[in-house]
C-alpha cells in the first residue's frame, strides 16, 4: 500500500503542457528577443578578442595579474597562455573567455540591482531568497531542455543557462554586503539628510564593494564551471573541445580542453580576488594607480577600512 | 534669549502596542512592570524641556535610561510615539520626510559615540560629507571642510584615512563633520565616551573653548556626571526614560531632587562644581587710616571673625588677624596702634568663578580669601573653613545618621 495506489499525479505531463503548449507557442518571440542583447555583447567581445593579437591579450592579462595578484601570478599567466597557444587552443580559449565575460556582465547587471533591492526591503528578500535556493539546487541539466525549446541551440542559449547557474552568488553577496554596512554609518549618513539614493551611492555601495566583488568572483567561477555543460546546447569554445573529446573517447583532446579551462580559471580567479581586496583604495589618482601598478601587492592591501567595523 | 529647541510631552514606546503602554504609564506603572505585562519598552517618557540658543544642555543618565533614544528623536532618526519637538517652529516629530531632510541638512548635525566616520573616505571627504549631501560644489565644499578641520586642529590630516588616526583625532573629525555644515544645533551622543580619560579631558576643554566662539546650541549626552557638570549650562538627569531633575550644575549638586540624583552626586568632585562666589560672604572691612588695631579687634569680636580685610580707599591694603591685632593692642597698652603695624600685605585672593578645588591651597593659609572682580576690587570674602565645609558637606549629616535619605535635608544647602 502506498499513496501512488490512490492517486497518480502526472507531474511530468503538466510541465510538458506548460512548456510545450503554453510557453513555447505564446512566448517564443519574447524569449528570442531576450537573446538579442546577449548576442550583441557576445559577438562584440568575440570579434574583439579574435582581432587582438595573442601576444597583446597575454600582455594585458599578465599585467592585470601582476597588479592584482603579484609577480608569480603574472609569470604563471604568461606561461599558461603560451602553453594554451602552443597546444593549438587559442581561438577556443578566446571564445570561452568572451562567453564567460558576457555571462558575468549580465550576471552583474541583473544581480547587483536585485541584490540592492533585496537588501533594502525585507519583503523583496523574502521573495528572492527561495528563488535563489531553487536556482542553486536544481541540477543544471534540468533546465537545459526548456532552454533549448525556448531559445533554440547556440551560444546565446548556452550563456543564458550559464547566467541562471551563476547568478545566485552575486545577488546573495550584494544583499549581504549592503545589509552588513555598519548601522552607525547609516545613521550618520541619515543624520546629515542623505536621500535614499545618496545613501546608496555614497555609503552603502562603496562599503559593500568588497563583498560584492567576492560575489562576482564566485559568479565567475560558477560560469567557468558551466562551460562544458553549456557546450552541450551548442556553445562553442573549450567546452566543445572537451565534449568532442568525450564523444570520440579521445582522452588527449578532452584533457587539452580541460587544462585550458583550468588555466583560464586560475588566472581569472586570482585577478578578481585581487580586485576584491584592492578596491578599498579609494579615489586613487592616476599617478597613484601607476605607482601601485609597479608595487608588490602585499603592501597596498594593508589599510583595510573594513577592519574598523 | 529665545528657545531654539522645545520638547513638549514627548514619549517613545518601543513595541507594537504603544497605546497600551501609555495607558499603564498614566496609571503610574513602572518601566519594568510595563515591560513584563505588555512587552513594550519605555524609551522616553514625558520629556519636557527647552534649550536656549547658545546653551549646552547635557542629558545624563545610566545605560538604558533613554538618552540615545531622546537625542535621536531630536533629529528624527527615531520618531516619537507622541509629543512635539520644535526646532524654531518646525515640528520634527510630525513633519514630512522632505521637511525633515531639509532640517537635517541645514539646522542640525550629530556627533556619534563611536565616531561613525566613513572608512572609505579621507578625513577631508568625511568632513565634507554634509556639504556634499546638501549639493555644495566641490571647491566650496573643500574650502569649508578644510576650515572645519582647522578649527579642530586637524588640517594637516586632510588626506589621511580615518583608520590612520587615533580615537581622539577621529572624534575631532566627527566634530568637524558636524560643524562643517554650520548647523545651529549640534547633537552629541556620548561623543567622548570611547576615549581615554586624559584625551577625554582635553576634548572637553577643547569643546568649551570652541563653544566660546561658535555659540552653538548643543545637546550633549553623557553617563559621566563630572563631564555633565563641567560642560552643561543646564543638566537633565534621566532615569527609566524620565527626567528626574533639570537644573544647573550647582543646583543639582546642592539640592538633588531625590535619592537617585543624590546617590550620583555623592561622590562627585564638589570642588569642580562650586566656585569662590558660591561660598563668599559680604566683606566687612576696616579702613587703613581711619581705624586702629583696637577697632579691628572689636569688629572681629563683634562678628566672631578671625581676620579682617583692611582697605586703603578702594584698594585692598591687606589683612589683619585677631591674634596679631589683639597682641599688639595689649602690648602697647594704648588704644592707638596703627593698623599698618599689624598689616599682612601678602593676602590670598581669587576670582569670583575660581573653582573651589583651586582654593584648597589658598584656604590652607588660614587667612580669609579676598574675592575680587576684574578691576581688583573686593567683592566678597571666603572664610577658609567655608571652603572645606562645602567640599565635604556630606559629613555633618552623615556622621550621626548614615541613612542616604538625609542628603536632601534643607539645612545642608550651601549658600549660593
Ligand atoms: N530599537 C529599539 N527597540 C526596542 N527597544 C529599544 C530600542 N532602542 C532602545 N530600546 C530600549 O530603550 C531604552 C533606552 O535605550 P537607549 O539606547 O536610549 O539608552 P541610553 O541611555 O542611550 O543607554 P546607553 O548609555 O547604553 O547608550 C532601553 O531600555 C533600550 O533597551
Ligand atoms: Mg546611548
TrEMBL record, chain A:
Q: In Gene Ontology terms, what is one molecular function of this protein?
A: carnitine transmembrane transporter activity
* Manganese recorded as keyword: no
Per UniProt, the keywords (alphabetical) are: Cell membrane, Membrane, Transmembrane, Transmembrane helix, Transport
Subcellular location(s): the record lists: Cell membrane
Q: Which residues cross the membrane?
A: 48-66, 73-91, 97-119, 140-167, 220-242, 249-268
Q: Which InterPro entries match?
A: MetI-like, MetI-like_sf
Tell me the domain of life. Answer: Bacteria
The terms describing its cellular component in GO are: ATP-binding cassette (ABC) transporter complex
List, for all copies, the residue spans of the domain called ABC transmembrane type-1.
Answer: 93-272
GO terms for biological process? choline transport; glycine betaine transport
Alphabetized Gene3D superfamilies for the sequence: MetI-like (1.10.3720.10)
Where does it primarily localize? membrane
Membrane topology term reads:
Multi-pass membrane protein
Please report which protein family the annotation says this sequence is part of: Belongs to the binding-protein-dependent transport system permease family.
Name used for this protein in its record: Proline/glycine betaine ABC transporter permease
Annotated source species: Devosia oryzisoli
TrEMBL record, chain B:
Asked if Cell inner membrane is a keyword of the record, the answer is yes
Look up the EC number in the record and give it: 7.6.2.9
The catalytic activity, as recorded, is: a quaternary ammonium(out) + ATP + H2O = a quaternary ammonium(in) + ADP + phosphate + H(+)
What's one Pfam family the UniProt record gives for this protein?
CBS
SMART domains found in the cross-reference section:
AAA
The kind of enzyme this is, by top-level EC class, is translocase
- Where's it found, cell-wise? Cell inner membrane
Q: Where is this region: Disordered?
A: 389-416
- All copies of the ABC transporter domain together span 5-265
Instruction: Give the GO terms filed under biological process for this record.
Output: amino acid transport; glycine betaine transport; response to osmotic stress
Keywords, in A-Z order: Amino-acid transport, ATP-binding, CBS domain, Cell inner membrane, Cell membrane, Membrane, Nucleotide-binding, Transport
Hydrolase among the record's keywords?
A: no
What topology in the membrane does the UniProt record assign?
Answer: Peripheral membrane protein
**Which terms in the GO cellular component ontology are assigned?**
plasma membrane
Name a GO molecular-function annotation: ABC-type quaternary ammonium compound transporting activity
The principal location of this protein is membrane
Protein name as annotated = Quaternary amine transport ATP-binding protein
